[in-house]
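Cross-posting from the modeling subforum.

Setting up a comparison between two proteins and wanted a second pair of eyes on the formatting. Protein 1 (sequence, then structure tokens):
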Amino acid sequence: MKHQFIVLALLFLINTAPTSAQPAASPTAPMVLPPPPVSLAPVSPAPDSPSPPAPPQAHLLKILQKAGGFTVLIKLLRGTHVSDQVDSELSDLNDGITFFAPDDAAFSALKAGTLNTLSNEQQVQLLQFHMVPTYLTMSQFQTVSNPLMTRAGGVGGKEFPLNVTTKGDKVSVFTGVDGASVTKTLFTDGKLAVYQVDKVLLPVSIFSKGEDSAQGPAPPTKKPAELSVSGSSEVGKVKTGDVVRLVVGVGVAGVVASLGL
């Protein structure tokens, strides 16, 4: 009996004894969730910065009108539509244009009626003879190769060439008929160069070689006309190519004609 009591007492003590201290569990760290995926909209490339606007195209007539003193040249350019050709080629050609502009004084130096004796085609060629299909600065005239081809026509412009010489800062242009000096730069923009010249450039193909610039174009060759030389009776017929000496006796009827070779 005593033995059973001891056993029960031991069981009671075991069950009622405080449990040994356990190490406190560390608090659970909160779970960190990854941020939700961000939906990125497609990024469009930045627009190219706008290129600066191209400078307005120069117009030959406006340049001459602004400079003043080119009334005759402006009238010719309009009448032949060569000014339209210049404007059109400025839009299409990459090499640019150089134009030699004779002033009114240069045209006044021509023989009266010279322009009126030219056909429409020759007037166009005369103006195109002042037009080089290449942009040339004053300094480039010192190194350019002669002859300069012009827009006057022919295969590659070879029928209407110009030759340029320089001496210091002076530029002279020769045609085979006459020569002119560049007196002023009227306009340059990297594509069109307009230079004032003191004479009209006369091409050999239209004007006689060596003819004075104040004279008109060479007259067209005509078949010699037959002239009838007669007095009281017909003496004969002669041609204008012969040298005719007419001796007229006052009060004597008739004409004595003698031919000299």
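Protein 2 (same layout):
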Amino acid sequence: MRTSNHLIGLMNFLTFLASIPILGGGIWLSSRANSTDCMKFLQWPIIVIGVAIMVVSLAGFAGACYRNTFLMYLYLWAMFFIIAALIGFVIFAYAVTDKGSGQPVFNRAYMEYYLQDYSGWLEERVTTQSYWSKIGSCVRDSHVCGKMRKFVNGAPETADMFYRRHLSPIESGCCKPPTACNYVYMNETLWSIDGGLPTADQDCVRWSNDQQLLCYNCNSCKAGVLGSLKKSWRKVSVINIVILIFLVIMYVVACAAFRHNKRMDNDESYGETRMEKEHPSRIQF
């Protein structure tokens, strides 16, 4: 029985450790939401799940140490719902970030992003003007475009050097005009519209050399935000899936150990009853 209690305590301690990467992933997404991805709602469910796992594992650890049946029941039921919530959240994250990716451009190292490649819930959110105004302001305030400036031997990089750069989705979508506009490169965020060819892409009209505007209202910028969000979420989802598998294994072992404890307690009670019947007390009242 002690061995089972020790095993349950060890499982809860390992579960507590497993909550740290989940919580860390949520905090990392939160930091990116405030500086890069600018989507400030998807990180909270995973932070809540991470904190819940941490608290519940401590309750289970206390229940195992003090043989508190109520805490152990609470731990097992709470972990069941937490695992179910984590499974649902992983499926949701993959579903909403499933569609859309960067498209290669001839003679360019960077990708370009198109809003029509994305669909579903996230795409509907970024196309809502009231919501996009907040996201666009966040992208602008992050100064991601200003940080693109590079100098080689004290001189700005040339067009050929810029075309060989691997830009992030937001840099590609928000900080430069689409390649289809055929604008002439002057620097990373300054392009001459002289000589541009007519195109049906409305982002060419939305582009501005005003450093406070650039392409922040372009569909390519919205697509770039979604592309950046997808990359961030896929990284965190891989960690979540690994931790989820680990949590399921820990949960199954903890259930088995808890059932073993209950059986041992029942056997002890049955054994004590038999001893009392076989060797009754000589003192009778």
